[in-house]
Amino acid sequence: EGLSWSRALIGLLAGLLAAGMLLLGWFDQAAIQLRDILLEPYPVSGIVTIVEVTDESLARYGRWDDWPRSRHAELVQRLTAAGAGAIVFDVLFDAETADDAEMAAAMMQAGNVALPVLGQGDAFAQASGVAQYRGGVWPQTRLAQAAAGLGHANILHDADGYVRRLPLAAEIAGKPVASLALAAIQTYLGLDEGLPSVKGGWIEAAGRRIKVGPMADMSIYFAGPPAQADATTFRTVSYEAALAGDVPADWLRDKIILVGVTATAEPDRYLTPVGNGRPMYGVEILANSIESIWSGRFIRHAPPGVEAAIVLLIALITGLVCTRPWSGLALAGGMAALYFLLASLLFDAFSLALDLFFPLMGIGLSYVAVTGYRFSVEIRRRRRFARSDSHQ
């Protein structure tokens, strides 16, 4: 009972084991997936409206590849007349067509159209601290020259195949390109900042200071789950409704308008930590990324050394307080619940995502080790008493 150096040592050793696995990268996938439960929907700012190409759009106008760019030019004109703050296409116009001059003219007149670039192959990190892609696909030259901004549409997949991160800056075939999400906000604000530079793990762009990883990657703070027929996180209108001008004026005026494909036959869908197994379209991930940047909701992660220290401390405390098996189990469960509550509060208040997996592992290992030690001591003690009684 009370302070026991043996229990403290056992708790410390259990913490060292859990902290060592954290630093070595063991169970990283499980740790990432458990941390996903911290994500909760939040009210969006309303800065984004999605113009989606749906199954109905394809049924009305035909295959996407057959759409003339004069139709996109007409859409740009409609959105410009409605007062759109920025028009961002999440579709790549890389081939040359007969209507490019018409679309380029509409884009030049609008002066606020951003187009995507696509990096090819897997991203890799270099000394510059931004994502590197060996090759890329660029918009048709005339359209690229008419665009107010260009941005790459690439995302990053974690080991479990889920999308949680977005590289804010990249070099594609040696050319610097900001992400399309950042280019959209820069176009909306009328900024010409170029490629943001990474300094000490931070990027300063569009008036924001964003914590990034080794490939200038930002953790996306998803505002909500993928859209369903009866519920959407962002305001969404069909392409044909926007083209016909059948959209409430305040949905378009001074908004960032994203034009993307959400038809079921299109492959631009990805698993995300908020989908409950349902994939999210690329244009929705772009909308979430823009909302995260615009509203300043940047997920931050504690350094590995700090996380390891937390694991050591919580395992040590568990070893000290677990004096009896059943009461110790209750105390260990209470500590786990208290830690989860604290992590949730810190995430809600400061977007600080503490690790959940390894601290809970530290609590479990410490409790099991201390309880096993107490049982072994009790067994040895009873054996001594039994031998003593037999001699008497």
Give descriptors for this structure.
392 residues, alpha/beta, 7-stranded mixed sheet, 4-stranded mixed sheet, 12 helices, 21 strands
Structure annotation, total helices: 12
Largest sheet: 7 strands, mixed
Q: How far apart are the termini?
A: 30 Å
Low-confidence stretches: none
Please report which band the strand proportion falls in: under 5%, 5-15%, 15-25%, 25-35%, 35-45% or over 45%. Answer: 15-25%
Give a quick rundown of the structure.
Helix 1 runs antiparallel to helix 12, helix 10 (304-321) packs parallel to helix 12 and helix 11 (325-350) packs antiparallel against helix 12.
Structure characterization notes:
By secondary structure, the protein is an alpha/beta fold. The protein is 44% helix and 19% strand. The protein has twelve helices and 21 strands. The longest helix is centred in the last third of the chain and has 35 residues, at 357-391. It is elongated and about 100 Å long. The model has no long low-confidence stretch (mean pLDDT 91).
Task: Set down the secondary structure blueprint.
Layout: H1 5-24, H2 28-35, E1 48-53, H3 55-61, H4 69-81, E2 86-89, H5 100-110, E3 113-120, E4 124-125, E5 131-133, E6 135-137, H6 141-146, E7 149-152, E8 156-157, E9 163-167, E10 169-172, E11 175-178, H7 180-189, E12 198-199, E13 202-205, E14 208-211, E15 217-219, E16 235-238, H8 239-244, E17 256-261, E18 269-270, E19 280-281, H9 282-295, E20 300-301, H10 304-321, H11 325-350, E21 352-353, H12 357-391
Parallel strand pairs: 1-16, 1-17, 2-3, 2-17, 3-7, 5-10, 20-21
Antiparallel strand pairs: 3-6, 4-5, 8-9, 9-15, 10-11, 12-13, 13-14, 18-19
